[in-house]
Amino acid sequence: MSNIQQDPNPYSIEYARKLDEQDELAPFRNEFYLSPDSIYMDGNSLGLLSKRAEQTLLEVLNAWKIQGIDGWTQGAHPWFYLSEKLAAMSAPLVGADAEEVIVTGSTTVNLHQLVATFYKPQGIRTKILADELNFPSDIYALQSQLKLYGYDPDEHLVRVASRDGRFLHEDDIIAAMTDEIALIVLPAVLYRSGQVLDMKRLTAEAHARGILIGFDGCHSVGSIPHQFSEWEVDFAFWCNYKYLNSGPGGTASLYVNRKHHGTSPGLAGWFGSRKDKQFDMEHQFHQAETAGAFQIGTPNILSMAPLLGSLELFAEATLEKLRQKSLHITRYMMDLIEHELSTFNFTIGNPLEDERRSGHVSLEHQDAARICKALKELQHIVPDFRAPNIIRLAPVPLYTSYSDVWETVQRLKTIMADKQYEKFANTRDVVA
Ligand SMILES: *Cc1c(COP(=O)(O)O)cnc(C)c1O
């Protein structure tokens, strides 16, 4: 059901402005560095810089400037405890206890760590279950982990097929949970279509068959709520530079359910030690009794610092309100697209039900690559292209206004009506 049909003129800029006036989260926009000359719709790929994130980065830099090595234990944010401090701040976003989360490494490295830890082929249970729509890096990591065991990934990596190239059916995934599967790794949200998988159901079904299961939260954390502990998800990992606005290359996160604390990390390193033991410098590894055990080496302190400020904003706005606005503003965008662009052959490629859709609108079009170029170069809208035919538009609830969404759809209409996209080749750029 559309939420804008009651107003006499729900497709007008006046209506968009009215929604902005009623938007409780609107003040958070002032916390961000928004370009005055363009509209940013790419927060699902790289979130924007906030003033708080800038401030905490400068504070950490200053500790280095003033205190040198003593920054490890002194200053506003002692570096030795920063991963744990950020974990406690992140835990509410994933429905976990502080000890079940750690901020460390990068997404793909964390996946390697978790697979190295939890993939234990035994008897006929030697296969890993994934899906054919997942992000390539995850698939490469799984393939290489299988090779380390001497398995042929073509045979041992089972990828659940999508029926339509957009979505996965939970029933199909469950049907693939055979007694040959040792481990399951799935996205929480599919990066193209934005489909939210039913993590609770999939976890229960995996466990009923004696299979461990973990989720990639890159496109879900900071966008939708999770209850990892309550659902008993075994592990998860995510980046912090998309919806969590921690900056390019920002340090990533992982979650390990407390029932697995004490399991030896597949890839051990001294930052996985108990804090009180780490500097004993013994060759006997005393692993932390928390998710901290899955850290490897010295954390990238400067790449973690912006997350401190950014997570403050999430605590203030609350995930509940962010999700509420996100659902509302993406619905608004879809309504406008249907009304304004109906003659231009776009297909909305994300799920339409609220429980199954996430923070971005996935627009499909055969000329998607060059429509994106026209959006950016001629109309000053920053979209996100995903090959072969997807325009992702993310009205991020912390800093996107309803007027931004209205403008975006109008400019998209201009590009289509005037065929402005024909000035560009329909191929992707190096970084898309
Ligand atoms: C963004 C993203 C990644 C990125 O991994 P990095 O190691 O941070 O480069 C991995 N998986 C998914 C699903 C993503 O969306």
From TrEMBL:
Cofactor (UniProt):
pyridoxal 5'-phosphate
* BP GO annotations: anthranilate metabolic process; L-kynurenine catabolic process; L-tryptophan catabolic process to kynurenine; NAD+ biosynthetic process; quinolinate biosynthetic process
**What is this enzyme's EC?**
3.7.1.3
Keywords, A to Z, come to:
Hydrolase, Pyridine nucleotide biosynthesis, Pyridoxal phosphate
Q: Which GO terms describe its molecular function?
A: kynureninase activity; pyridoxal phosphate binding
What positions does the entry give for pyridoxal 5'-phosphate binding? T107, T108, F135, P136, S137, D138, D216, H219, Y241, W270, T298
> What reaction gets catalysed by this protein?
3-hydroxy-L-kynurenine + H2O = 3-hydroxyanthranilate + L-alanine + H(+); L-kynurenine + H2O = anthranilate + L-alanine + H(+)
Q: According to its UniProt entry, what is the function of this protein?
A: Catalyzes the cleavage of L-kynurenine (L-Kyn) and L-3-hydroxykynurenine (L-3OHKyn) into anthranilic acid (AA) and 3-hydroxyanthranilic acid (3-OHAA), respectively.
What HAMAP family does the record tag this protein with? Kynureninase (MF_01970)
PANTHER family noted in UniProt: KYNURENINASE
Q: How is this protein named in the record?
A: Kynureninase
Organism in which the protein naturally occurs: Paenibacillus albus
Q: What is the lineage of its organism?
A: Bacteria, Bacillati, Bacillota, Bacilli, Bacillales
